UniProtKB/TrEMBL annotation:
Record domain Major facilitator superfamily (MFS) profile: where: 36-233
InterPro entries with a match to the protein in the record: MFS, MFS_dom, MFS_Na/Anion_cotransporter, MFS_trans_sf
Gene Ontology process terms (BP): neurotransmitter loading into synaptic vesicle; regulation of synapse structure or activity; synaptic transmission, glutamatergic
Name of the protein: Major facilitator superfamily (MFS) profile domain-containing protein
Keyword field: Membrane, Transmembrane, Transmembrane helix
GO molecular function: L-glutamate transmembrane transporter activity; neurotransmitter transmembrane transporter activity
Transmembrane segments: 34-56, 95-116, 123-145, 151-171, 192-213
A GO term from the CC aspect: synaptic vesicle membrane
Recorded topology in the membrane: Multi-pass membrane protein
Source species: Adineta ricciae
Localization terms from the record: Membrane
Length: 233
């Protein structure tokens, strides 16, 4: 009997919370929960686009003649467009890729607890904002910081780790947003729409990132990602 009454209380409390959010005023005749779902999906999309940025940089570090970022004079006094020559091996680049996902895994469970204590939207937005700020630092840590003692490599690894910690908060927070903003009858549709951003991100990121890297230099993809996020904000 006690379990039943507790279940009814939780169900009633959740129902009241959902009704509270779903009955909020609309913006341009669009319910706020729909706007929140669109922005959350777009945030997940951009966060996964950022994950493709360094993958594109990887290929251009290993094949520097395909980049247009830095001009170096060759022996015939002709200008060849290439990246800054880095002594990073494919194994070291693999470490830089994997350290992002190490941070991604480590932050999942703490983020889930934080969502229960604080606003899910705040847990989603603030780490995402830091993620994009760190994305602006990537071209600096890769090519501007001195390569003596591989300082640029270790700084890039640190930035990648923190980026992973920030990106790992997005998925648990999106669950909280679905629970708090979507009434039970709409959670399936809203959840499917929100999480579609996770899978659209790599498609958009590699497609547009490849075009930008070819015509504007591969560092432009980092700035473009931040520009898109600022438009969303």
């Amino acid at each position: 009997m006690r379990i039943s009454s507790s279940s009814e209380f939780l169900s009633k409390d959740m129902k009241e919370s959902n009704e509270k959010h779903s009955n909020k005023s609309s913006v341009f005749s669009i319910p706020k929960r729909v706007i929140v779902a669109i922005l959350t999906s777009f945030g997940l999309l951009i966060s996964t686009v950022i994950q493709t940025n360094f993958a594109i940089t990887n290929s251009l570090i290993l094949n520097p003649l395909n980049s247009k970022d830095i001009s170096i004079d060759d022996d015939n006094d002709q200008t060849t467009n290439t990246t800054l020559k880095l002594s990073w091996t494919s194994v070291e680049l693999g470490y830089l890729n994997s350290i992002f996902y190490l941070g991604y895994i480590l932050s999942h469970m703490p983020a889930g607890f934080l969502v229960h204590q604080y606003s899910a939207i705040k847990i989603f937005l603030f780490p995402l904002l830091l993620l994009f700020i760190l994305n602006l630092l990537m071209p600096i840590t890769i090519s501007t910081i001195t390569s003596a003692f591989k300082i640029n490599y270790y700084l890039t690894a640190l930035v990648r780790l923190i980026q992973g910690l920030c990106a790992g908060c997005a998925f648990p927070a999106s669950h909280g947003i679905v629970a708090n903003w979507c009434p039970p009858s709409e959670r399936g549709r809203m959840g499917g729409f929100i999480y579609s951003g996770l899978y659209a991100g790599p498609v958009v990121g590699f497609f547009l990132g490849g075009i930008l890297a070819k015509y504007s230099g591969h560092y432009s993809i980092y700035y473009a990602s931040v520009l898109i996020f600022s438009l969303e904000s």
